[in-house]
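[agent] plan:
  1. take the single chain provided in the ticket
  2. run structure prediction with default settings
  3. attach structure tokens to the ticket
  4. add a short note for the reviewer (M.T.)
[agent] executing step 1
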Amino acid sequence: MWHDLLIDCSALSCEGLLLAYPRWLSPDELHRAEKLHRPEDRTLFLAGRVGVRRLLADYHSLNPCAVTLAANAFGKPILREAPLPDLDFSISHAWPYTLIAVSRGCAVGVDIENAGRDIDPQRLWRRFFAAAEVATLEALPAKEQRDAFFELWTLKEAYIKAVGEGLSLGLDSFTVHRGVPPHTAAPAHGGTWTLAHTTWPGSFHAAAACLSSTPLPSPIHLDITPSIL
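[agent] step 2 finished; step 3 output follows
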């Protein structure tokens, strides 16, 4: 079972979220939001925590205020007490969007990136990517390289988030192959990996990864229709 939610935060504010959902957020989350310098980052963070509670509460048939979040040893957000032990979730941000996925029966990771931001993709892929990925990107025409880089970048980040071991798992320790569907070689863990990637206007790329002990009954997909809280 799989569900994802894309929240458009452009019409939201951290102050508005705090007023609308005062009991949904823990003291630790409020403290973390206060430490973020940019209002946009605070809004994205709070929207992610409110949105994921809404999704998890639907699975649990609980009041969202009763959903307690924590983090594993590598910093991945997890449920502190899970009535459904096989439930997992992942959150990613790229202004003005917050992307959330919740799954039952598989570890999940999602990532969203704005390909229009000012970075040097070539410098990043040569420094961080596996050799086969570098070769794939550098064989492409120059006009295709930027989007191909962000496709691989989001897929790799989603994979790492699903594994749940943070930066201890190097980006060059596994290889993602572009294709339909994309797939990974030399996975960090056993099981069956399912990957998905999508784009939409505004230079945004998003990806999801699921790790299941058995193949999923149907391919995962990303709903890129923005919602608001």
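[agent] step 4 note for reviewer: Strands lie at 2-8, 69-71, 77-79, 87-94, 97-104, 107-114, 175-177, 183-185, 192-200, 204-212.
[agent] ticket updated
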